[in-house]
């Protein structure tokens, strides 16, 4: 990106900066902020554009995989492939949530309280002491341990917030929308009520702001963390468990089968990245019972077709029980 802003923008943001000492990424970072001339707008725009490009860019491969029968052997619920109509409906809901949560109208920066996720991030970050437009970037080792902290914090926050969203009032008015698909697919990762996008999004953000109280944090570290988080969220909703999926190499990684069960059973497995919180708090008992039933069915099956039929029967029973769980939750709300 070439500099097309006035020299005043550079002098105001980067006085005394030696451009020859910067690496390629840092030079482009400087160019972006100078081009916009306003750090608040520059931070907001790069956040919004990154989110849309990564979210839909990562979802497209899963859409292609869903359209290729060869991959059904690794589909967790192979009899439930999202139709083009379902995918289009999902895209419309996700875009609406993104626009209302992330992108305010041109007339007013505060059209919705949810806009703070993107457009008030810069001033909020500066209040907490986070570096935004500044260069150079932190070292790779610094970014690595801080991202690890963000992941750890967000996973605990997500478990607690997600568990709360399954309480009757919050489920009916907010979280129920996300559970429309009992067999999730990549695009459905953020198919949710804007309030849910905001609530869970605060877990992604809060860890970085808290860490700012103890050490220096740069926006580029948070930027990379959000990219990782988007990949994780989309992949966990993909509905596929490949032999090369990360959970087969990192046993504590949740993976798609962990979250796929949550959508099928309407309960258990509230964490997003790791398995340990559900294990610690005892919210994975039904999941482990389900996996044991599937493992037993596989051991007893004589042919692959026998196992496929047995697995579908188990899945149907789990879904039926899950629907009863959801109905009981809504009935409880009506009584109150």
Automatic annotation (TrEMBL):
| Protein name (Swiss-Prot/TrEMBL) | Fatty acid hydroxylase domain-containing protein
PANTHER family, per the entry: STEROL DESATURASE (PTHR11863)
* Span of domain Fatty acid hydroxylase: 148-283
Keywords associated with the record: Membrane, Transmembrane, Transmembrane helix
Membrane-spanning residues: 29-50, 206-228
| One GO cellular component term noted in the UniProt record for this chain | membrane
Q: What is the lineage of its organism?
A: Eukaryota, Fungi, Dikarya, Basidiomycota, Agaricomycotina
Q: Which GO terms describe its molecular function?
A: iron ion binding; oxidoreductase activity
Among the GO biological process terms of this entry, one is: lipid biosynthetic process
A Pfam family cross-referenced in the UniProt record is FA_hydroxylase
What compartments host this protein?
A: Membrane
